[in-house]
Amino acid sequence: MSRKEEIFERLRQAVILGETEECAKAAQDAIDAGIAPMKVIKEGLSKAMEVVGDKFENKEYFLPEMLLSAEAMYAGLELLLPLLKTERAERKEKIVLGVVEGDIHDIGKNIVKAMLTAAGYEVVDLGVDVPASEFIEKASEEEIGVIAMSTMMTPTLVSIKDVEEKLAKKGLKGKVKTIIGGGTVTEQWRSKLGSDAYGKDAVEAVDKVKTLVEEIKEAVKLMERKRKKRGSQAGECR
């Protein structure tokens, strides 16, 4: 096993086992060894979180194990992310994430954030008790195509509805996709609230976000083709 692969394996095991200090140490060793930070994230941290996600889905891991793994991963990311600014890395898709207004339960949100980060997305975390207007404002500022919202309480489902209505009023519905999740959220609620997707857990949420991002990309390509066609037709009429 090469030195590089040894470090990657240490990173993967540290995240899978939730060993925060070991993950930070392995990340620093990778930096000292001159390994590209993005490579370390993809081959070490991201692959480890895929394993953790599988274990969670197969009920080998539960909430405490997921939290420990997420903490370990962030310990590595804390050292690696600042170095990415000097790399010419590929553009990341951004996701706005937050717990809706009226709710402060953030454990589920934090796990989803960890999984999305590991999947290569740049997550704009708005925290908890987030007003509908803040979701809309941030998504507009950052040119973000996906808003991810969570809640653990039935009364705050109205906050999700508020976001959907504000998106519609601003003409952003469809351009900005929404995904919801949390203890009280169901597929039936998703349909009633008008959201685009529902994730029953962190693993499914990441899969659904990937699908939404691809839908947005395809829609953009379609609009670009239509724009070019109109331009071509206008030129022929002159």
Can you put this structure into words, describing what you see?
By secondary structure, the chain is of the alpha/beta class. The protein has 2 domains: 1-90, Methyltransferase, Methionine Synthase (B12-binding Domains), Chain A, domain 1 (Orthogonal Bundle); 92-230, Cobalamin-binding domain (Rossmann fold, 3-Layer(aba) Sandwich). Helices cover 63% and strands 9% of the residues. It contains 9 helices and 5 strands. It has helices at 3-17, 20-32, 37-57, 63-84, 107-118, 132-141, 157-169, 187-193, 202-237, and strands at 94-99, 122-125, 146-150, 177-181, 197-198. It has a 5-stranded parallel sheet with strand order 2-1-3-4-5, sandwiched between helices. Strand 1, helix 5 and strand 2 (122-125) form a beta-alpha-beta unit. Helix 1 runs antiparallel to helix 2 (20-32) and helix 1 packs parallel to helix 3. It is globular.
